[in-house]
Amino acid sequence: LPLLTVFRLERAEDAARRAGLSTQPIWRKLWDDVMKTRPPNSESITCWRKKFLETFFSNVLHGVLDVSSDWRLNDRHFSPLLHSSPHVSQLTLCNMLQGAVQLTAEHNHKVLENLAGSLRILKFQHLLSCDQSVRRSLVLLLHRLIHHGSVSQVSMYSWPVPDTVLLVLILTMSAGFWRSGSALARHGSLCGLCREEGKAQESAQEGAERGCSAERERSDGDNHQRSPEEADAPVNCVLSGPRSPPLRNPAWEETSSQVPCGHTSVQGGSSPRPSSEQPPCHPVRKTRRRLKPAVGRKRRCLRRSRGHYADPEDLYDFVFTVAREDSSGLLGKTRTTEGENTENWTSSSPGSPCTGHAGCKKRGGPAGIFSLKAAHRFRSVSTLELFSIPLSGETCRTLSNLLSSWVSLENLVLSYNGLNANISCILSGLRALSRQPECRFRVLRVSDMFSHMPCMELVRCILGALPQLHTLSVSFDLKNQLEGSRPEGNPSCSQAEIPESCLEVLEIRFPREPLHTAFLLPVLKASKSLQQLSLDSATLPCPQELGLLLEVLKECTPNLKKLSFHDVNLAEHQKEVLLLLQDPGLQEITFSFCRLFESSTAEFLSEIINTVKRNSSLKSLKLPGNRLGNHRLVALADIFSEDSSSSLCQLDVSSNCIKPDGLLEFTKKLEGHIQQRGGQIPFTHLRLFQNWLDQDAETAQEALRRLKAVCSVVNDSWDSSQAFADYISVM
Question: Which intervals carry biased composition (Basic residues) (predicted)?
Answer without folding.
Answer: 283-299
